[in-house]
Amino acid sequence: MSEFVICINNGSNPASLIVGKVYRRLPDPEAEAHNMLRIIDEDLSELDGYLYPASMFVPVELPEEAKQVLMAVGS
Predict the structure, then answer these.
(1) Domains, the chain, ordered by start
(2) Whole-model pTM?
(3) Would you say the C-alpha torsion 65, 69, 71, 75 has a positive or negative sign?
(4) Which of 16, 33, 40, 73 is the most buried (most CB within 10 A)?
(5) How many CA atoms lie less than 13 Å away from 3 in the CB half-sphere?
């Protein structure tokens, strides 16, 4: 899966996720085995990200320049 995803459903997390926003996905094979993704969300206080259901996101491939910018700001 891509290292970036777009939120398509913020369900019970409207304060933490914005529908349509691109988020950085952190690798977590154990979480992914349970259909969860580790995401750097709006809180930004948890550098290890938070777990969310994978169904709340779709993967997206970004141009290299966009990736660099998002990585720099901690997207």
Answers:
(1) 4-73 (2.30.30)
(2) 0.84
(3) negative
(4) 40
(5) 12
Task: For residue 54, give the amino acid letter.
Answer: A
What percentage of the chain has pLDDT greater than the value 90?
61
Burial 7-39 (b: 16+ CB within 10 A, else e): beebeebeeebeeeebbbbbebeebeeeebbbb
Question: What band does 39 get if pLDDT is binned at 50, 70 and 90?
Answer: very high
The distance from CA 42 to its chain's CA centroid, rounded to whole angstroms, is: 10
Q: Using CA atoms, how far apart are residues 61 and 12, in angstroms rounded to an integer?
A: 26
Per-residue pLDDT tens for 43-68?
767 778 899 999 999 999 999 998 88
Tokens of 19: 């529908």
